[in-house]
TrEMBL record, chain A:
Protein family according to the UniProt entry: Belongs to the binding-protein-dependent transport system permease family.
Protein name (record): ABC transporter permease
Organism ancestry: Bacteria, Pseudomonadati, Pseudomonadota, Alphaproteobacteria, Hyphomicrobiales
Subcellular compartments: Cell membrane
CDD domains documented for this protein: TM_PBP2 (cd06261)
Organism: Aquamicrobium zhengzhouense
Automatic annotation (TrEMBL), chain B:
Superkingdom of origin: Bacteria
Sequence ranges assigned to domain ABC transporter in this UniProt record: 5-254
Protein name (record): ATP-binding cassette domain-containing protein
Keyword Lipid metabolism: no
Family listed: Belongs to the ABC transporter superfamily.
UniProtKB/TrEMBL annotation, chain C:
Protein's UniProt name: ABC transporter permease
Pfam families: BPD_transp_1 (PF00528)
Species classification: Bacteria, Pseudomonadati, Pseudomonadota, Alphaproteobacteria, Hyphomicrobiales
Transmembrane segments: 26-48, 93-117, 137-162, 202-223, 258-281
Residue ranges occupied by any ABC transmembrane type-1 domain in the UniProt entry: 89-278
InterPro entries: BP-dependent_transpt_permease (IPR050366), MetI-like (IPR000515), MetI-like_sf (IPR035906)
Gene3D superfamilies: MetI-like (1.10.3720.10)
């Protein structure tokens, strides 16, 4: 188990290094950072001073090391637009994003998994068909279309909910709904197929043959085994939530990380984009690491190995 | 008889269970094998699973590079795998696989697969290929109408005939058969073995026949090599080995071949666990299962020794109770 | 090999079309028809559209759908929504098609390379695949666009990186299992060069799996491109794409919802059709992947 965790840690670290290298390379490939950051009309003196200041005349490997050192001290530079440290700006936006993504994730789990399990246990029923339809809906309706349609219905036509801003809990309802509806369907569909696969296994037939009640078969044998693939999907869900936040926050003018990405990309505020990239990569890596740990806890083979030590 | 292929000091090790921290463990699959194959003979290689038979076969063909030792083909060194010289040499040496279905491309017709070596080595002009394929199919006993079939539409025995026809397309000199019949129904096995024997006679092939089935080896082979955990424990002419097995392991193997009318009498039942290459016993690797083992066997590795024109690797060779076939089966 | 398994394999080789005729549900027919219509619109957009996409009709601004001459209405500048929609379908489908091919070729190629050379090549490819999985693709695209600015070529190349790691994993796994004990190893042993082994044997054997993955990637790329264009970071005006139209239509959500609804309906129906058709194909061609 310790070995398992160590390998995961090393891999997580390698991935993070790759993300940093990616940011560095893309920044260097896209042109002279001095001109990008100062603008094409900047005086030559200013450009020279900038190059000197940021070591842009050094060989590339030296610049790379300097960049890594900078990142490791959490110095991501200053936002061009707002003139505040980029990382501070990013961190100040995180709570708003968590306020809609965490409820959305909880909804996906709390509704999606039970609905999928129920559908698997009652195949061909109305609920089963509903789950399949909703999941196809989740795969094919993009969040920006769904968001706008929800606005059209609940804000424009019915006038029940506000269409944008962050003034009260009511403002959060439509963003959370947009983020979670498709995901609930996908989660349900996946739980359903994981459960159906487990129910077809020989050990379920064995459990039933030895006279366990259906309830015990489902709770003690089927669910724990179906949990492993479902937990794996959760890792992917975190990534799609962050990407979804970029779109949803833009639609609803929700002042979170996602909207910050879009505006800073549009303004080419590179320092902010870079810090966002690393913060998002970190959160993804942490999420995947937690999923891996959860996987280790759930997988009986890994559990047995740990108990043996 | 001239020496077609000579192996000297062949060793092969595999690394398993590689961990991030801690030493990877190595398994020695083949441990120092010397072997000469003469032109025109059929050499049988027998042993339990895990004895290194298949690894030896792959090294003899140059598919795997040995960790130590070398293989000489017609006096020259074996080229490295996947080099142009190595590919050219495939015209002379071919392998028959254990599982014919796995060895065939399911999306290609039988005729196209048999034609493939001819295309690869550009041995015939395009317009003569189909004639040669038909000739090969007839030779291995396939009907002409099966040319357009796919492997999944054939029976196991027919598939193995396709594999054999494909291997023979280039008229190789040397053929290694790695358990060619063990995946087939018992009723089919004899047909395929007879086919191989006939082809060997007709085409003047040199053959290495790997099997754990002693009945087949006894009927087919001129010479037999017995392997145990990566080493040769006994080697000699097939008749003599089956008539007078010298090594205790060979004795146990020979006694396990059922004989009509004798029941289970005289069978030597091997004790202990089957050999595991990852946990090789010290000294003579066979000692934990040997009836005659003593302290010396646990510490000394017996060399392959010549005795009365026979080769065997056992410390007790001179002192063993002599057992001939009759004693083994009727004692 | 039982008789049942044998007979199940045999029809797999008969023509796809003849089997399609045998049993193709109504819904699948509708999906196929819709996709055919979309492809035809994409090819003949120039001939079909009633107006040039930038032609403004200031006397008929924000005309409602059903107005004679502007069957899907006009936008805030009086441009014909139907004409713009046709051009958008062309642009979005061309990008998605190009990108799907690109990612399938790149991914399969890298997967085969990993399988052929193993060792550090394989480790490098798998590390890249991990990296791809570590960042949501939309975020990575946004970062690249931030650094390089937006251009059509860059957009296609960028979308071409979507999902390559899936092809790479599939291709690598199937190639390794084919080489280890299987038919590919046997062909190598006959003296074939790697090019022959991969092109004549492994590729045809993995093609159905790869095609099914393409039906999964294609709608996702359409959604990804529309998402980027919706955010104003994909296809740039005066060119137009489906997402781009939705993005502009969003400004007039209350007064002229048809500007945004028309492209939305096309996006949803197209991705829905491909997904359903893909599911149906998958059940028939390759039951092994989800």
């Amino acid at each position: 188990m310790l070995n398992h965790i160590l390998i995961r840690l090393v891999r997580a670290f390698l991935t993070l290094m790759l993300v940093m290298t990616f940011a560095f390379l893309v920044l260097r490939l896209s042109g002279d950072p001095a001109i990008i950051l100062l603008g094409p009309d900047a005086p030559q003196d200013a450009i020279n001073a900038f190059r000197e200041r940021w070591g842009l005349n050094d060989p590339l490997w030296k610049q790379y090391l300097a960049y890594i050192a900078q990142v490791l001290t959490l110095d991501f530079g200053v936002s061009m637009r707002d003139q505040v440290p980029a990382l501070e700006l990013v961190i100040s936006r995180i709570p708003a994003t968590l306020a809609i993504t965490v409820p959305a994730l909880i909804l996906k789990i709390a509704i999606g998994i039970p609905a999928g399990v129920y559908a698997a246990l009652h195949r061909q029923s109305i609920a089963d068909r509903g789950v399949i339809t909703l999941s196809i809906f989740g795969f094919t309706v993009p969040s920006f279309v769904l968001g706008l349609i929800l606005v059209l219905i609940f804000a424009v036509s019915l006038g029940w909910l506000p269409s944008g801003g962050q003034d009260s809990w009511k403002h959060a309802i439509l963003p959370i709904a947009t983020l979670s509806v498709g995901g609930i369907g996908i989660m349900a569909r996946f739980s359903r197929s994981a459960m159906i696969e487990v129910l077809g296994q020989p050990y379920i037939r064995t459990a039933m043959a030895k006279g366990l009640s259906w309830r015990d078969v489902v709770w003690k044998h089927a669910l724990p085994n179906a949990a492993v693939p479902i937990v794996t999907l959760l890792g992917f869900m975190v990534g799609s939530l962050i990407a979804g936040a970029a779109v949803v926050e833009s639609i609803f003018s929700w002042p979170g990380v996602g909207r910050l990405i879009v505006t800073s990309v549009a303004n080419r505020d590179l320092a902010v984009v870079q810090s966002l990239l690393l913060v998002i990569a970190c959160s993804m890596i942490v999420a995947n690491f937690l999923v891996d740990l959860g996987y280790g806890l759930l997988d009986p083979r890994l559990r047995a190995r740990r108990a043996a030590h | 008889m001239s020496v077609l292929l000579r192996a000297s000091g062949l060793c092969q090790r595999y690394t398993t269970g590689k961990k991030l921290f801690g030493k990877p463990s190595t398994v020695t699959a083949v441990d120092g094998i010397d072997l000469e194959i003469h032109a025109g003979e059929i050499v049988g290689v027998v042993g339990e699973s895990g004895s290194g038979k298949s690894t030896l076969a792959r090294m003899l063909l140059g598919i795997e590079t040995p960790a130590a030792g070398e293989v000489e083909w017609q006096g020259g060194p074996m080229p490295n795998p996947a080099t142009p010289e190595w590919r050219a040499l495939r015209r002379d040496m071919q392998l028959i696989f254990q599982d014919p279905l796995a060895a065939l491309d399911r999306r290609m017709t039988v005729a196209n697969q048999i034609a493939e070596p001819l295309e690869i080595h550009k041995m015939l002009p395009r317009d003569q290929i189909s004639g040669r394929v038909a000739e090969l199919m007839e030779k291995v006993g396939l009907r002409p109408d099966q040319a357009d079939r796919y492997p999944l539409e054939l029976s196991g025995g027919q598939r193995q005939r396709v594999v054999i026809a494909r291997a023979l397309a280039m008229s190789p000199k040397f053929l290694v058969c790695d358990e060619p019949v063990s995946a087939l129904d018992v009723s089919i096995q004899a047909q395929v073995v007879n086919l191989l024997y006939d082809l060997q006679q007709e085409e003047d092939l040199t053959m290495v026949f790997i099997s754990h089935d002693l009945k087949v080896v006894r009927n087919l082979c001129d010479r037999v090599v017995v392997m145990y955990l990566g080493r040769i424990v006994e080697e000699g002419p097939a008749d003599e080995i089956f008539a007078k097995p010298l090594h205790p392991y060979t004795q146990a193997l020979v006694s396990s071949v059922p004989q009509a009318g004798t029941g289970m009498k005289g069978r030597i039942v091997l004790q202990g666990e089957p050999p595991n290459p990852a946990a090789r016993p010290s000294g003579c690797a066979f000692h934990p299962r040997c009836r005659f083992a003593d302290a010396a066997c646990k510490s000394q590795v017996p060399p392959l020794m010549r005795d009365n024109g026979r080769l065997a690797a056992c410390l007790k060779l001179r002192t063993l109770p002599f057992q001939d076939e009759k004693q083994l089966t009727h004692a | 090999m039982t008789v049942a398994a044998l007979s199940a394999e045999v029809p797999a080789r008969r023509g796809l079309l003849s089997r399609a005729r045998q049993k193709m549900p109504m819904l699948i027919w509708l999906c196929a028809l819709w996709l055919l219509a979309m492809v035809l619109v994409a090819i003949f957009a120039d001939l079909l559209r009633p107006y040039p996409i930038t032609k403004m009709d200031l006397s008929a601004r924000m005309a409602e759908p059903g107005t004679p001459g502007h069957w899907l209405g006009t936008d805030d500048l009086g441009r014909d929504v139907l004409s713009r929609l046709m051009q958008s379908i062309r642009v979005s489908l061309v990008i998605a098609f190009g990108a799907t091919i690109l990612s399938a070729v790149v991914g399969t190629g890298l997967g085969f390379l990993a399988a052929q050379f193993r060792g550090w090549v394989e480790n490098a490819v798998m590390a890249l695949a991990d990296f791809q999985a570590a960042l949501p693709f939309l975020i990575m695209s946004l970062a690249v666009l931030a650094f390089f600015g937006t251009s059509m070529l860059l957009l296609v190349c960028l979308m071409g990186f979507y999902g390559w790691e899936r092809y790479a994993r599939i291709a690598r796994g199937l190639a390794i299992s084919a080489s280890a004990q299987g038919y590919a190893g046997a062909v190598v042993q006959l003296g074939a060069k790697p090019s022959r082994v991969y092109l004549r044997h492994i590729l045809p054997n993995v093609a159905s799996t790869l095609i099914v993955s393409m039906t999964l990637t294609f709608p996702e790329i359409i959604l990804m491109e529309s998402g980027l264009s919706f955010l104003g970071l994909g296809v740039q005006p005066p060119q137009t794409s489906l997402g781009n139209m939705v993005g502009f239509g969003r400004e007039y959500l209350t007064r002229a919802p048809w500007i945004m609804l028309a492209p939305s309906v096309v996006i949803v129906l197209t991705t829905l059709s491909i997904s359903l058709l893909g599911d149906w194909l998958r059940d028939r061609l390759d039951p092994t992947i989800r």
